[in-house]
Amino acid sequence: MKSDQPLRREKILKGVPASPGIAIGSAHLFSQDIPRVEERSLSDGEVALEFDRVIRALEKSSKELDKILVFAQQKVGDAKAKIFEAQIMVLHDDVLIDTIRKRIRQEKKNAEFIVSDEIGKYASLMLRAHDEYMHERAHDMEDLKNRIIRNLLQEKLISKLEGSVIIVAHTLTPADTMILSRNHVLGYATDMGGVTSHAALFSRSLKIPAVVGLGDVSREVETGDMLIIDGYSGTIVVHPTQERIEEFEQKHERLLTFEAQLALLKELPAETLDKHSVELSANIELPEELEYVVVQGSQGVGLYRTESLLIGRDDFPSEEEQYQEYKRVVDRIYPNRVIMRTFDIGGDKIAPGMAEEANPFLGWRGIRVCFDRPDLFMNQLRAMLRASTRKNLAIMFPMISTIGEVRKAKEYILKTKTDLRAKQVNFDDNIQVGVMIEVPAAALTASQIAAEVDFLSIGSNDLIQYLIAVDRGNSLVAGLYQEFEPSVLTTLKHVINAGHKEGIWVGICGEMAGNPLATALLIGLGMDELSVVPAVLPEIKKIIRSMNYSEMRRVATEALRLTTGEEIELYLRTVFRKAFPEIPLDNNNS
Ligand code: PEP
Ligand code: MG
Questions:
Q1: Is 461 in the pocket of ligand 1 (CB under 6 A)?
Q2: Residue 438 CB less than 6 A away from ligand 1
Q3: Do 460 and 525 contact (CB within 8 A), yes or no?
Q4: Is the same domain home to 315 and 461?
Q5: Average pLDDT of the chain?
Q6: What is the per-residue pLDDT across 511-547, written as a single tens digit (0 to 9) for each?
Q7: In the listed set 120, 153, 186, which residue is the last one of a domain according to the structure?
Q8: Domain match, 127 and 74 both
Q9: Shortest-distance atom of ligand 1 to CA 307
Q10: Could you tell me the distance, in angstroms and rounded to a whole number, from the CA of residue 141 to the centre of ligand 1?
Q11: What letters, b where the CB count within 10 A reaches 16 and e where it falls short, cover 179-188?
């Protein structure tokens, strides 16, 4: 802190933890000025030259975006870089360019005004949709519009920063996040955005701590202010006191030491002290996360959310495109197994061409969409089966509520196999097929469902939401979303018993699997597999390796005996604190 500045009061702000890590440093307030667009009438002489200005600005914008695209592909991978391809495509859209040309000629108005109006139409259309994904796309269009206008006005973009800083902004476009990361950025803090915003996604890939959705941090902070960002808990501290800085420096040190210790477990199996083995695998959203999964010492992929392939595009990937992606994933993880979930679209995960619904979580979602769009479903099944020749791929269906749906989904697999056989295409004829248990109806009929499949994987995120009737994304009822409710525990136990009676394994791939407080409980209940976000995998492995299975069984029995969620959580905390005083409880599952 500068000594000539009056001491400012420390302030703590809570936001959404978007990318883990702790950063301490000075703030750089980043604002991308929105270029002002004025409406101006042109003389006949000007009209003829105006369109040339548009072409030059489009070319310049395209060159800038080409560079950003290449950089993004290197840094965050092809899939996430696709949004820049989409922006470049708009720049080359003949219909758009022709409309701009015609309007300048007919209306005799300046290029900035016409460009802003035309591209603005796309953005407002997207903003009218009531979902976060389309809003993000609208922001991409706004970003593109501002880039072209800046180039029409020949304004320069600021992208060079002095020293190492924490970027504070109202919002960050994907392009800002990429370009700024070429400097030494310690962290990001933004007013807007959720965990699925691109700034969040990119900062996670770039491994830069970030907290988003802070409300008005950009008004609270000035360039040069001292800041702490805690990307684990989603907290930022503005004008921290010296004691606070020391506290966070110590926390940072502790976490680094802890992470270094965990790295030593990489090659070791996930087994308890008394040699009970558990399968510990990772969830992935994008193939780009594969390397991280391998580095973290995962035994395989317990959930590949394939619907993430649809992010940033307005069509469905072809069978061939999907095959290439799936093949890349199974090859990298071989000889370990990858469980691929068929597209779980709908709910809060929208997809190309989906209608708005009043109650999306109870609506056209997951397997229901697949049955209504057999073309898409079979395309995906063909791509998965073709990628299964090394026999380390398993298929899993989301959002199953009835046994009829399980049978129907399996018929699609049979039909796909027959088609492939007729074309003499190779695949794994014994491919394992499982379902997600995430709807209470499926949990209640788990015995019958288990008789039809090779494994059950509990999707606790949805199961809890449907069981307690509490929207998993609604902050108003977030307090009711309780992983340790007796109703949840009883349901887990019921599903595990049902699976085991039919001689199949039962796993869990919701966020609960990665909560260190739940590890002993879940294994003690009899869970055979835990699939967790890669970031917490080493820590969960350490917990497994430090306890006896007999002890875990006792923990589960005691937890099942207690009658409220609060009591159960308190009990698990006490057990945890006693067993692992050195493990920080607030550095994960955020
Ligand atoms: C779940 O519901 O627990 C799950 C893993 O699926 P998703 O979070 O993708 O809905
Ligand atoms: Mg789910």
A1: yes
A2: yes
A3: no
A4: yes
A5: 88
A6: 899 999 999 999 999 999 999 988 789 889 999 999 9
A7: 153
A8: yes
A9: 9
A10: 30
A11: bbbebebbbb
